Amino acid sequence: MITIYHNPRCSKSRQGLALLEASGKDFKTITYLKELLTKEELTLIIEKLRLEPIDVIRKNEQIWKENYKGKSLSNEEIIEIMLENPKLIERPIVSNNDRAVIGRPTEKIHTILS
Predict the structure, then answer these.
(1) Could you tell me the maximum CA-CA distance found in the chain, to the nearest angstrom?
(2) 45 pLDDT more than 90
(3) Which of the chain's ends, N or C, has fewer CB atoms near its CB within 10 Å?
(4) What are the residues whose beta carbons fall under 8 Å from the beta carbon of 99, sequence distance 6 or more?
(5) 10 assigned to active site
(6) How many C-beta atoms lie closer than 10 Å to residue 101's C-beta?
């Protein structure tokens, strides 16, 4: 099942959602700022992305710059920070079975639709 982890206030996330709608494929939308992710869900998403947790952080967000930038953090700590501050999670993330991509640029979403 295709899933988009979506933030409606983000233009790139809205573009990703529009791309999925235009694809004609069935998908599920999770508005992750309202439907908070569990530690297990976030860990699985990061595994599907095949990235390190730090690579899924929005490093230009004020909360990151003020509280965490430059600190030596473990993967576990970074995941906890994302759970406490879901605004820090890159967006959109689109998952399909055992793979996922961060939809920046939006065209990356095409790589996992088949």
Answers:
(1) 44
(2) yes
(3) C
(4) 48, 50, 112
(5) yes
(6) 22
The rounded percent of the chain whose pLDDT value lies above 70 is: 100
Question: If you average pLDDT over residues 12-41, what whole number do you get?
Answer: 97
* Distances in whole angstroms, Cα of residue 101 to Cα of each of 12, 66, 89, 93: 13, 27, 13, 6
* Other Cβ atoms closer than 10 A to 83: 17
Nearest to 68 by CA among 40, 112, 26, 79: 79
84 close to 61: Cβ distance less than 8 angstroms: no
Which of 3, 6, 7, 10 is flagged as catalytic?
Answer: 10
Q: Identify residue 76 by its one-letter amino acid code.
A: E
DSSP 45-112: HHHHHTS-GGGGB-TTSHHHHHHTTT----HHHHHHHHHH-GGGB-S-EEEETTEEEE-SSGGGGGGG
Give how far the C-alpha of residue 8 lies from the chain's centroid of Cα atoms, to the nearest Å: 13
Q: How confident is the prediction for the chain on average, in pLDDT?
A: 97
